[in-house]
Design a protein that fits this description.
The structure holds two protein chains of two kinds. Chain A is mostly beta strands. Chain A has strands spanning about 10-15, 20, 25, 30-40, 45-50, 55, 60-65, 75-80, 80-90. In chain A, β8 (about 75-80) and β9 form a beta hairpin. Chain A is globular, with a radius of gyration of 12 Å. Chain A starts with 7 loop residues before the first strand and ends with a strand. Chain B has helices at about 1-25, 30-50, 55-65, 65-90, 90-95, 105, 115-140, 145-170, 175-205, 225-235, 245-280. Helix content of chain B is about 80%, strand content about 0%. The chains are: A mainly beta, B mainly alpha.
Chain lengths: ~90, ~280
């Protein structure tokens, strides 16, 4: 079973069809656990084409998405159930 | 309403295209309508169950349940499509030999239509559960009114079914002797694409290394999120920014199923040639 140890944790909330924060600062070169919390009444799907991640976040629920080690740069993500909801990982 | 329709359409599209291709690939087979509609019905039932237990699935396997579930569904569909293709290549002689009338085995119950039906049910289950989760979410929140949501859902579903129907009619307009060559190629590419999607989920669960997280980027030509991008994503596994492991899964699926098809097809041809040679020596038999 996967048991992933992350070097850093970052919390991202989805509220009123917005990611909070929408620009998420993440350290480069380490494995990072993104904890995505859906504080809406509607289900969401956290997705990123560039990071190859897609995961449903039920209303009121939270998920963990592991990314990295990443090179410095900007990586976009969005809510596939509401594509106007967008955010970016800013990797430094 | 429009936003709802678009999202439902996107979720339904992949399953609808798979159903269209499977229906074309099983043209002339007895009872295929029953098998495929049974597969769709089982898939819808499964989608509802998956949507109901979404939170429990997600929490399983230390939070990686969703990834393992999706990867498992996708790989099972790959196996089913591959099995049917290999079976068909064993009977390729019957197909090529009878341009208008299909061989007895291909028409009859000997053909593994259950494999196609199973693949259809898995596709409907996976995409359908996302559509249900999306719709259920807005229904609960009471956003935009129930009628708008229902209308959006129906329009999205209808558009998806129209796309599946279009690919079906496009394929069955191909002459019978070419149809099965084309559909078996389509099913092969479809299976390879599903395998590459499975690889992405296994990579997300950290069970597989990415082997280069983005080998190339063609999103400036065709984005994964565009309509054509989505269609090609299903049909041939198009991914604008593929990871190395996805290429490995794609190629391994093509080589394994394609190789087995050739192997089985070649041994069938040898057996057929021997049978012909035998009957030439003893014409009485």
């Amino acid at each position: 079973m996967p048991c992933i140890a992350a070097d850093a944790q970052v919390l991202i909330s989805i509220k009123d069809h917005q990611f909070v924060p929408s620009d998420v600062a993440v350290p480069a070169g380490v494995k990072v656990e993104l904890i995505v919390k859906n504080e809406q009444m509607v289900n969401a799907e956290f997705e990123s084409s560039v990071l190859h991640r897609e995961k449903i976040v039920t209303a009121g629920g939270q998920i963990s998405v592991f990314v990295g080690p990443l090179d410095p740069g900007i990586y976009e993500f969005f809510d596939d159930f509401n594509q106007a909801t967008r955010g970016r990982l800013v990797v430094k | 309403m429009l936003a709802t329709a678009i999202i439902v359409f996107r979720e339904v599209l992949e399953a609808a295209l798979i159903v269209g291709i499977v229906m074309a690939a099983s043209r002339g087979a007895l009872g295929r309508g029953l098998w495929v509609s049974g597969g769709i019905a089982a898939g819808i039932l499964g989608a509802l169950l998956v949507a109901i237990f979404a939170a429990a699935i997600a929490a399983a396997a230390q939070g990686m349940g969703q990834e393992l579930f999706d990867a498992g569904i996708l790989l099972a569909a790959v196996a089913m499509l591959g099995w049917h293709n290999v079976w068909m290549s064993r009977h390729g002689r019957e197909l090529a030999g009878n341009a208008t009338r299909l061989g007895k085995d291909v028409r009859s119950g000997a053909r593994p239509l259950w494999a196609l039906a199973f693949a259809v049910s898995l596709a409907v289950l996976r995409e359908g559960s996302e559509a249900v989760l999306f719709l259920y979410g807005i229904a609960l929140a009471g956003q935009g009114g129930a009628l708008a949501m229902v209308m959006g859902g129906i329009i999205g579903l209808a558009l998806g079914v129209a796309a599946g129907t279009a690919i079906y009619w496009g394929l069955v307009s191909i002459p019978m002797r070419l149809l099965f060559t084309i559909t078996s190629w389509l099913v092969l590419l479809l299976a390879a694409g599903l395998a590459s999607q499975a690889a992405a989920f296994l990579m997300q669960a950290d069970l597989l290394p990415p082997l280069g997280s983005n080998l190339w980027d063609t999103s400036f030509i065709l984005s994964d999120q565009s309509l054509i991008g989505r269609i090609l994503h299903t049909l041939i596994g198009y991914t604008a920014q593929p990871a190395g492991i996805q290429i490995v899964f794609y190629a391994a699926t093509l080589l394994t199923i394609g190789g087995l098809m050739r192997l089985v097809g070649a041994s069938e041809r040898t057996a057929a040639a021997k049978a012909r040679a035998g009957s030439a020596v003893n014409p009485a038999e």
